[in-house]
Amino acid sequence: MTVDGRWVWLSLSCRALDPHGTTPHAVVVSFSDITERRAIGRRLAHDATHDSLTGLANRSLVLRGLASALRGTGPEGMTCVLFIDLDKFKVINDSLGHGVGDRVLRIVGDRLRRRVRERDVVGRLGGDEFAVVTPDVPHCGQIRSLVDSLRRALTEPITVEGRRLRVDASIGIVTATGDDGRCPEDLLRDADVAMYQAKTRGRGRYEFFDVELRERVQRQLRLEQDLRDAVPQDQLWVAYQPIVDLRTYRRVAVEGLLRWQHPVHGLVSPGEFIPLAEESDLINLIGGHMLRTATGELARRRLRGASRTRLAVNLSARQLDDESLVAAVDDALRTTGLPPGELCLEVTESALMREPSAAAEVLTALRGLGVRLAIDDFGTGYSSLAQLWKLPLDTLKIDRSFVAGLDGPAESDAEAIITGIVRMAHSMGLTVVAEGAENDRQVRVLRDLGCDRAQGFHFGRPAPADEAFGP
Asked: Which of 58, 125, 134, 370 could serve as 129's disulfide partner, Cβ 3.0–4.6 Å?
């Protein structure tokens, strides 16, 4: 120790002046101060196992801590791994800059560290992903208490540069006993899978991992990859469902609906692959393919005089955000030769109301091409009459849930709602189409209530072009 109280590390060496002489030998002792070298070594060792931004354990140390926790867990206890991903953190980074984002990450890391036990491991895996390893957990109730405590800490307002920010997190949870056959990497992967499920179910929540969940998520990942090859390999095709005039019961239009014939899994439900396409931005690719295919099919049949049926095609919210949408629609019409007035583009009410002014701008540009426009699934969103007046619409489609209600105990309520929608739409000069008509009684009621058109299994299921129109 030095006179000022500091400890120093010395490296000593000793050798005899005359090793062949008689004892006791005269020796030479030399030493050097290695305090700084040891400090550098400690810093390098720390940096190799800790995150430079937050000071938390990095992925390597998290896995090492998890392996140690598993070795120390008895057959009756559990080790718990939490995989934490901040929700919409990209918005903070993109809008306020990476400097603010880094400060938020440091605050989040500090809050996590303060809410766990001293022996627990808290780490940052990269980006806005964190992990907590907590050994010797007696029961799942304690895990839920820990998760609730962490989420309360995370959701407290964060003040950075005078701005009050709020963050939340999606959390995946996996537990393991001492005799669990999974290695630390497998457990962290499974916790990641559970976190992904929490995000897809609405964010700001947590999910426990199970084997069925892993299989389901792995199938989704495989399908997403396969979907990228579906267009060039000609696996996607269009089914057509008739839309009928309720005054004449004649078909006046068809709605084109995308179908996927997977080479291994067979026909994959649109309810499964459309959300995958929207989450991965593939919706613009397959949506454009569907538009070109359907307009081309109708145009060819018009030239042969086989069909004068109008075509309705759905647009997703992601397509509505695509800057090239208007050009893509224009190109499809010009390439196929289908008259613009024969195409009706349908957008859901929720997509339109997400950013009404931006949606109105896109719809106005599409109307400039001469196409018709419809608001789909009406009644499930929160649009106002003032907002609807600003949109260049031609058609309003009543959501199928109200039509189904015509057969239930709340029949009178469903009739009242449909009547109100029809009167409002007609006052705006819109054609009303009811979706989901499945029996004679529903059709009669819809007609009596003033609906102009209807579609549903009663008039025909979606079918390939040759079945829908004839060869």
From this structure: 125
